[in-house]
């Protein structure tokens, strides 16, 4: 294990992580900017947009496990991780261009179709990419280094996704707009950086001793108690993050009355997130991954709970909240991904097959379903209180109060639940090292 990990240079880790930038650049707009663009700019109803995106996530319920299972069973000379990743790059790039540069007469069916295509390509790209990273190293701390670099570049890609659309604007569907520019950038950079990774980063060594059937594999998943506990926390925390992500633009525009600050505040949030990644790695090294993640979620909950007490025009106070919670999102991104790799070791040691694809399919589905539930929950609930998405609409005091509570306090309660799940997480560094010794001794 040590010999293999010692050959994993920092340059190779960074090259591996590069595709995270364009992948992230399409993720944030799909959940924050696309619903707003299709409802406000193209004029589709908020309810239908939410239904279309929920439909896409239901399709994912089929795609994710099938792709994850196939990613583990695919064995060709080029590599089971690299092959599927390479095949998915052009499809994902083209679908991103179509969803971000729709025709002005685009209907809800256009959004549903291309959203489903993009989601399929994204899943086929992301699952082998993350499985690749999990299998690059077996060391407890080295895995955090890999995920830290990948998630730091993810945040940089997110910053690009914020800067480009807001630099040009997204209020005019005619001709060329900010989302269209972002679509072009993704369509060009994803295949380019993905090809560089395929060229320079070798396929990770596989430690499979025996093949596991589908039914038997499901039983191993069910018996992996740390996995069940982690994915539960992952889902709850994902929902806690997804609700404010879905409502962020409306909160800044309608509650704070500062629509011109939507882009700068988003940029501030994710810029601070880049700084939070090394901070999370540092704290995890002094304690443990799961306890450091719990500290981050707990701190974010306390800070975010003050948000509904803000008033119209309190932009600077909200900017401080964005900066502090942005710093802590680095914990949410880097640490769970590293714990995921450790949890997979339990299955590999028990089943005899290295099934990282299956596990990351489960986490991918959990992430998407939590974000879809956030949209499907937040938008209709806001509608019940009379909230209207149009920028020109004067919102009632009741709808604005509901917006603030749904935006901040419901996510805060959810995060406390996630903290409870991971506080005394049962997989320690010593246990993980014993698992790796068992896996690699054969």
From TrEMBL:
InterPro entries: MFS_2, MFS_trans_sf. Pfam families: MFS_2. Gene3D superfamilies: MFS general substrate transporter like domains. The keyword Ribosomal protein does not apply. It comes from the Bacteria. Keywords: Membrane, Transmembrane, Transmembrane helix. The chain crosses the membrane at residues 12-32, 44-62, 83-102, 108-131, 152-170, 176-199, 227-252, 264-283, 292-310, 316-335, 369-388, 400-423. Belongs to the sodium:galactoside symporter (TC 2.A.2) family. This is MFS transporter. It comes from Ahrensia kielensis.
């Amino acid at each position: 294990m040590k010999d293999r990990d010692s050959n994993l240079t920092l340059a190779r880790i960074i090259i591996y992580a590069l595709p995270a930038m364009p992948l992230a650049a399409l993720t944030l707009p799909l959940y924050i900017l696309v619903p707003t663009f299709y409802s406000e700019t193209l004029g589709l109803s908020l309810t239908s947009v939410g239904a279309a995106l929920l439909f896409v996530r239901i399709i994912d319920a089929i795609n994710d496990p099938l792709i994850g299972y196939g990613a583990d069973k695919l064995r060709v000379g080029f590599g089971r991780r690299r092959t599927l990743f390479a095949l998915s790059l052009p499809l994902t790039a083209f679908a991103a261009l179509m969803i971000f540069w729709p025709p002005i007469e685009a209907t809800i069916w256009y959004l549903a179709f291309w959203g489903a295509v993009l989601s399929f390509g994204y899943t086929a790209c992301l699952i082998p990419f993350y499985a690749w990273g999990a299998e690059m190293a077996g060391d407890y701390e080295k895995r955090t280094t890999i995920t830290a670099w990948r998630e730091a570049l993810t945040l940089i890609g997110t910053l690009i996704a914020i800067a480009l659309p807001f630099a040009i604007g997204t209020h005019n569907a005619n001709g060329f707009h900010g989302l269209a520019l972002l679509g072009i950038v993704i369509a060009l950079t994803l295949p380019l950086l993905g090809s560089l990774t395929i060229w320079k980063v070798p396929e990770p060594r596989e430690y499979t001793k025996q093949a596991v059937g589908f039914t038997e594999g499901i039983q191993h998943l069910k018996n992996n108690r740390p996995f069940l506990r982690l994915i539960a926390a992952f889902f709850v925390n994902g929902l806690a993050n997804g609700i404010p992500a879905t409502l962020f633009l409306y909160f800044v525009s309608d509650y704070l009355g500062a629509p011109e600050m939507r882009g700068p505040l988003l940029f501030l949030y994710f810029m601070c997130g880049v700084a939070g990644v090394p901070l999370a790695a540092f704290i995890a090294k002094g304690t443990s991954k799961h306890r450091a993640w719990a500290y981050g979620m707990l701190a974010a909950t306390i800070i975010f709970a003050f948000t509904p007490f803000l008033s119209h025009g309190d932009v600077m106070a909200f900017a401080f909240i964005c900066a502090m919670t942005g710093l802590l999102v680095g914990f949410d991104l880097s640490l769970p991904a590293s714990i995921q790799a450790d949890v997979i070791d339990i299955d590999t040691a028990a089943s005899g097959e290295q099934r990282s694809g299956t596990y990351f399919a489960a986490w991918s589905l959990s992430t998407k379903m939590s974000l879809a539930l956030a949209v499907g929950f937040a938008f209709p609930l806001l509608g019940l209180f009379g909230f209207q998405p149009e920028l020109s609409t004067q919102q009632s005091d009741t709808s604005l109060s509901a917006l603030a509570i749904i935006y901040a306090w419901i996510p805060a309660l959810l995060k406390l639940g996630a903290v409870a799940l991971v506080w005394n997480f049962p997989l320690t560094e010593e246990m993980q090292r014993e698992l790796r010794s068992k896996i690699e001794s054969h």
